[in-house]
Amino acid sequence: MSYDLEQENKEISARYKDLISNTYRTLDEENNKLIRKAFDIALDAHKDQRRKSGEPYIYHPIAVAKIVATEIGLGASSIACALLHDVIEDSEYTYEDLKKIFGERIAGVVNGLTKISIMNHQNISVQSENYRKLLLTLSEDFRVILIKIADRLHNMRTLESMAPDKQKKIASETVYIYAPMAHRLGLYNIKSELEDLSLKYNNPDIFNEITEKLELAKESRIRYIDEFTKEVSERLKDEGLNVSIKGRAKAISSIYRKMLKQGVSFEEVFDNYAIRIIYKSDAKNEKFLAWKIYSIVTDVYHSNPSRMRDWITQPRSTGYESLHLTVLGPDKKWIEVQIRSERMDDIAEKGVAAHYKYKEGYKQSNDDRNFEKWVTEIRDVLEQQQNLTTSELLDNIKLNLYSKEVFVFTPKGEIKILPTNATALDFAFSVHSDLGMKCLGAKINGKLVPISYVLQNGDQVDILSSQNQKPKFDWLEFVVTSKAKSKIKSFLNSEKNSFVEEGKEILQRKLRHAKINFNDEEINKLQKFFNLKTSQELFLKFQTNELDASSLRKYIESKNVFNNLLSRFKRSSNKNQHYEEPKEINLDMIVFGKDEEKLNYSYAKCCTVIPGDKIFGFITISDGIKVHSDNCPNAINLRAQYDYRVIPAKWVNEESFKNRIKIEIEGLDRMGMINDITTVISGAMGMDMKSMSIESNNGIFTGNINLEVKHKGQLEETFKKLKAIDGISRIRRI
């Protein structure tokens, strides 16, 4: 393919100028020089590279840098890191090179981004491990995460050029990992867009349906917002308030969640759009003006007290501040109204990155402290949970990403923010680890309650403790915070460490005897085979002799079956297949892979599969192939964590499938060979060729062809004609 290099160079230059002129922060000469230097290095590193779409690769780092600069609002160093984020991974530049040119800080961030990317190429439970890596790097420099989120956002925006299977895999990973992380960092716009784009590729029918309905309702929505604005803005002006009023449709993914949660149609979701009132204010009057606007709005329209949220008096742990109320607006329709200052709006849009713009003059809310506290918690959890499987770690930490919050008070009146459903024991651990370990019970508002008591907003909590108290296994059933869980598990594990080590040595010996490597991947497989949650459980069972040599033999037998399946269906990026379901009726059999193989399978219990549904196969370790619906609630997790075990599947008509056979063909490769073969099969013999795969190596080709045959005579005649083709040496039926 030929490219207009001159035109591309002009476009690169234009995109760079656009990046520089649209930064969220003012750049001085030094900053401009730094960004220019990073751009020149990136341009050189990627000069011969192109994306899947065919466009120059440098477009991608420029786009990521623009997201970092304008949508996240980071400064010059981060913009430089974004331009350089793929340089170490994709070129000959090393960490040491970047360290010499830009210094240790920038080189360190780029290196952190490279480590995360490298994880993507490893054939293990990739995304879960990726998540652990993300969290580890976060504790060092959270810019790594912000730039990685920007990178993922641009990849999602340009996902059309990828193969459909790859699209689903990336979309699943995005909604599983990156959207929650964006949410936790206060990047609500980016979080919504990531979720919307993931829905677009994971469930295109739903996405398109909601998009179309929002578009149809656009005119009436604009009319409604104009009427609201007209009535309210006059009152606000009379009071001398400087405000802007905006209306927006809610995110498609948010509307879809409401439809699922409430079991209603799109038309029945009553608040699928919101109004935002943004006001100018100095630091001193911010809170006063918010409540003044609230008072004016509720004078005009009746409010729903149960849906009132005050995030100004007590900001969310992300630093988010706003007043949320739901009012009965024009036409007697409920609508959400958000009231926030320009500063609050900036922080709501830019998340943690915007905090630093408002260090002077404005009150410092808890935003930075809350964020730092969260990072510290993450670090503590990682240190405490070294022995956990990554998926367990993931579950523990994800609890705190999306969870809503409850506000409670210490006996001295200090506010503590905890996830919804947190218990008195969670509170004890949040005060101090030692207090949690020795917790006996609590006094809530002066009344004695057990440690399992679920905290409510406004509770005053006083913890009762004893030196004789020790953590128990049942504590894990009612704590919800990662800190509490990790501390309890750490204590419980320390008591059985010696048994675990002994069991580990026993298993090591048995595996060595069976000539199987002792590594994390193998341990994970053993866990799943024996249906155990942790590696510790596995070692303990070998120590107690609940599992022995005969148990291990069963695993080895199943492992051979599993490996055979995996090797058959192992996919690479250039072999992604998109399965279109046939339109014919009487679909009663499932086939797998690009060669449409008939294999043993069973249906997964987590979803209901009906003939004709869009489906996929999942290779389990001990239970063969499980068939899932594309809409299965576990589909995203399976694709995100175990993509290499997902295989394409489709429905066929068993009657028509009975006459399908597979042939293998070998010969000398030459120009026009494939054309000669297809001419015989499809032309001369009029046969239906279902699939064909040809490989050539040093002038010799081998191929597999799936055919639909009417009778044996037709097959014999086809073989005769194929053997007559110049260069073909062997044909056989498989």
Automatic annotation (TrEMBL):
InterPro entries: ACT-like_dom_sf, ACT_dom, Beta-grasp_dom_sf, HD/PDEase_dom, NT_sf, RelA/Spo_fam, RelA/SpoT_AH_RIS, RelA_SpoT. Its EC number is 2.7.6.5. The keyword Mitochondrion does not apply. One of its GO terms (cellular component) is plasma membrane. GO terms for molecular function: GTP diphosphokinase activity; kinase activity. Keywords: Kinase, Transferase. Residues 404-465 form the TGS domain. It comes from the Bacteria. Pfam families: ACT_4, HD_4, RelA_AH_RIS, RelA_SpoT, TGS. One of its GO terms (biological process) is guanosine tetraphosphate metabolic process. It is an enzyme of class 2 (transferase). Belongs to the relA/spoT family. NCBIfam families: spoT_relA. In eubacteria ppGpp (guanosine 3'-diphosphate 5'-diphosphate) is a mediator of the stringent response that coordinates a variety of cellular activities in response to changes in nutritional abundance. PANTHER family: GTP PYROPHOSPHOKINASE (PTHR21262:SF31), GUANOSINE-3',5'-BIS DIPHOSPHATE 3'-PYROPHOSPHOHYDROLASE (PTHR21262). This is GTP pyrophosphokinase. It comes from Chryseobacterium indoltheticum. The lineage of its organism: Bacteria, Pseudomonadati, Bacteroidota, Flavobacteriia, Flavobacteriales. The gene is relA.
